[in-house]
């Protein structure tokens, strides 16, 4: 007899299998859940309220984040590394999550940050030509800068443009430590795949090693990677390899997926425009898209009042839990909507206001990003604030 | 019943199977034999006697060399590309063959030349660390410069040091055009091999494309690669890929292997010091090694006088046919020795004189190579003579 349960597949190119079971994922990947005590420790060490994404479990798993906090407490520096695969010209809300969170971490811990634009990856995996990948990459960098990163602490680089001696050397020695079988097992490649795919995992791995950036780091300092959990396979591989190269294992802090507006529980995808709010959507687009979102409200008013909304299924409420900053108001909506006293329309309207404001603010910030600013962020240079 | 004939294996990492059948190799690889008429055409076009390696069939096979001559005849430029894998600090005579021949081609056709030092390859395949690979590479560059290349026409680069934007972009797009199965089939890799090996073929391929050197070439000009025939698999792959990228297929001119002193017919190997003459051997070493070489002289004087030497098996005579420039003298030795009137000792003595002179001259030339000269050859710069 054939089993009919779908297998849960999570890797950087596929998130499938219906509702994602994050507990299972933590077990399968072997990372750790972020406990209340860890969040409290962050609050104590940074003397500020933890980011809403941390308080509300958007970032829910980690690897060795506690060790990063240990060394921070001893007064040692670390650096942040995150990235972006430029598959399209405009970002959607889901893409912004790691950057908003990374900005918080950078400010709270006052640490340098490197951001890898994997234009080579999108050229390989999405069959874009290098020119389009690079153009998308540069447009995406404007969105990233618009999140408010500090140019004196942030180095953004394109793989196509930055590749250099020590960076390439680390790619080679990393690739020496991983068999092809291991890559096939981790990423699901087969013999029919282009060999360029096999080269890429090491390229995403090496920004985890401070020696890849000789202009930034004079000594080996630890790395913390904020990312969505689908990137975990890259960094499991990186952590396996690091000790064999005499490098530190990077630490990770990992988010769940931002849900699609119309989909069930999968990852928001740039390939279905209606399932995502784009950072260049108009107020009208946003309103329309939110009105079409999957709701947990009941089919008729009587049932709604009797049973309350199904908050587990309600995408607008989920979105509010990501983006409505006021804890008290969110709690109020949870109670009123969950107990049927508040209606779907009101929740959607509140979300429309929240997101319209975020998107409008982002659009204004992005419009102020000049080509010169992009060049400044992407110049291979020492970061003066490193030596404060 | 099991067949006992050994299979002939020729790829960049293995030359085995006893006596190499070069006719079979030409058939198997699908390249063309260099005919007398092609050699005469080279003589006519360059107005000089063709190099001894061409006259005597050391370089015996090609791909599209005739097309290079066609475009040269039309007054169009081409460039030369060859390379060196720095597996040890010192070169042996066999290593020098492609460089001596390339120098002749550069002078005869007055064309620019790029030389790739594959320090990354040796790090991956020979398990050297990057520092040793780079150090060996720089020492080897001194030997290469000592061959007499013109710095105004020659760019030598280390893969670890040179890797840059357009070069890497060509690596990526090349790797997109080749499946992993194809790489396995061509190079014999398996799942247990480190994934870094899979990345390398594209790295050796891309210097065949003039766009990989934006500081050298403003337009797409054709490439001619002088190399030993064991490098053919790389460039078969490159020639398959080139049209899909809108690039020209590189042309090739390919040599047979330089025989080992003590081995049978295989390739001279850097891993057995006694089977090779090194460019830093003393006159005494050279004499001793040549005395120990496999001879085609007969077991006793009577047989020798009766049957003559077996020239096919005689390594000293083979070496003379590579390095004794005087055609008449070589012909004389062939006749006298082959008919038993000249003895093995005399042939070995003649070879010792020839090689001692070559090695001494090389040593003097190498001693005059300064670090500044190495830097000058390896600087990424335009070559002024390109624009003559």
TrEMBL record, chains A, B:
Its main location: cytoplasm. Keywords: Aminoacyl-tRNA synthetase, ATP-binding, Cytoplasm, Ligase, Nucleotide-binding, Protein biosynthesis. GO terms for biological process: post-embryonic development; reproductive structure development; tryptophanyl-tRNA aminoacylation. It is an enzyme of class 6 (ligase). It is found in: Cytoplasm. GO terms for cellular component: cytoplasm. It catalyses: tRNA(Trp) + L-tryptophan + ATP = L-tryptophyl-tRNA(Trp) + AMP + diphosphate + H(+). It holds the Pfam family tRNA-synt_1b. One of its GO terms (molecular function) is tryptophan-tRNA ligase activity. InterPro entries: aa-tRNA-synth_I_CS (IPR001412), aa-tRNA-synth_Ic (IPR002305), Rossmann-like_a/b/a_fold (IPR014729), Trp-tRNA-ligase (IPR002306). Its EC number is 6.1.1.2. Belongs to the class-I aminoacyl-tRNA synthetase family. This is Tryptophan--tRNA ligase, cytoplasmic. It comes from Brassica carinata (Ethiopian mustard).
